Amino acid sequence: MEKKSCDKCIRWICGILFAAFAFCWLYFFQRELLWAENRFLFSEDNGLRIWMFNHHFLVSLSLTAIALLFAIPGRLMFRFKKGLYACNYLLSAAFLGVITGYDGVNVFGQDLTVWIVSGAFMFVLFLICKIVASVPKSDYNDRPRTLAGNLLILSLLFSITSYLGNTDENLHRRLRMEQMFNEGRYAELLEYGRFEEESDPEIDFLRAKAMFDLEATPKGSGLGDMLFRYTISDPKALSRSLRKMDNTQTYLASCLLNGDVWSFRDSINLDEYKTLPCYYMQALVIANDSLAAVRFPKQFRDEKEYYDSFLNDLDAVSGEKTQYRANSTFIKYHESYFWFYTFKR
C-alpha cells in the first residue's frame, strides 16, 4: 500500500511540474510567437484570430492540456515507473517544442539539424531509461532516488522543448514590436528593447518606421532626433530600406547612415525647422556648415562643444587600436552621431 501511495505521489509531482512548465512556456515565453503563428494560420478567419489573440490565457491552457494528453500514449507505450516515470512525458515535451518552432515564415521552422539532433537525443534518452529500468535496484534510499531521477529526466525533457522551440530573442522582440506597430503604439515600441545590445535589420527598420510616424514637424523628422539612440545591426541595409520610402526625411536619415554628411548638407532645407533635430545638427557640425551656425547659433554652439569634447577624448587614445578607441568613448558618446560617424558607418 505504501509503495502504491509513493508511485501515485510521483505521478502527481511529475504531472504538476510538467504542466507548470508547459503553461509558463506557452503563456510567458512564447506569447509573441503564438500570436504571430495565429495570424499566419488563421489569416482568412479574422474572428477566430482576434479571439485567440484576446484569450491567450485560454489558448495556453488548452495547449497545456493537449500536451498532458500526450502523456497517456506515452505511458501506455513506454510503461516507465517510479524514478523513470517522467520519461512518459517524452511525446508531450516534443509536442510543445514542435508547435513553437515558428520562424516568422514556416510553422515548423526547425531545420534538418534540429530535427536530427532532437530525434537522436530523445531516442538515446529512451534507450538509457529502458536499460536503467531493466537493472535490479535495492529499496535503500528509494524515495530520494525516485524523486531525483524524475527531476533529472524532466529537466532533460524541458531542454528538448527549448531546443525544438524557437528561442531566438530577436525574433520574439520583433514579433512584439510588430504588434505594437500595428496598434499604433509607436512610443512604447521605441522603448521596448531600447538598451539591448543585439538587433537585426527588420528590428532596425521597424524602429525607423515608428520614429517616422511619431508626431513631429516636419513629418518624419523624429528620425533625426532618435535614430542613433539604438543599436543598428546593419546601417547599409537600413539606409536602403529608408530610401525605398521615397521621403525627404528618410533620405536625410539614409545619408547619415551612409556617413555622407555632404549629400545630407546639400539636401536639407533648414527653413522647414524651428529647432533642428539633434542628429541633423551634429552632422552639420561635422560638415562645419556656416548656414546652420547662423540660423541656429545656440544649438550649433552646444553641439560643437560636444564634438570638440569627443575629439579631445579621442586624441587622448590616439595611439591605440580602433576597437580600443571605440570602447573607451562608447559610454559617453555612443548615442551621438559623432561616435557613429567615426566608428560605425
Keywords:
mainly alpha; elongated; 345 residues; 20 helices
Tell me what you see in this structure.
Helix content is 71%, strand content 0%. It is elongated and about 90 Å long. It contains 20 helices and no strands. The N and C termini lie far apart (74 Å). With 345 residues, it is mostly helical. The protein has helices at residues 2-29, 31-41, 46-54, 56-69, 71-78, 90-99, 112-134, 142-164, 169-182, 186-191, 201-213, 222-226, 235-243, 248-257, 261-267, 278-286, 290-295, 297-316, 322-333, 337-343. Helix 1 (2-29) runs parallel beside helix 8 (142-164), helix 11 (201-213) packs across helix 13 and helix 14 runs antiparallel to helix 15.
How does the SSE layout of this entry go?
Elements: H1 2-29, H2 31-41, H3 46-54, H4 56-69, H5 71-78, H6 90-99, H7 112-134, H8 142-164, H9 169-182, H10 186-191, H11 201-213, H12 222-226, H13 235-243, H14 248-257, H15 261-267, H16 278-286, H17 290-295, H18 297-316, H19 322-333, H20 337-343
Q: Quote the average pLDDT.
A: 93
Percentage of residues in helical conformation? over 70%
Radius of gyration: 28 Å
How is the main sheet built?
Answer: none
Shape: elongated
Q: Return the structural class.
A: mainly alpha
Secondary-structure element order, N to C: HHHHHHHHHHHHHHHHHHHH
Percentage of residues in DSSP E strands: under 5%
Low-confidence stretches: none
Which quaternary structure do these chains form? single chain
User: Count the helices. How many?
Assistant: 20
Concise structural overview:
By secondary structure, this protein is mostly helical. Helices cover 71% and strands 0% of the residues. The longest helix is centred in the first third of the chain and has 28 residues, at 2-29.
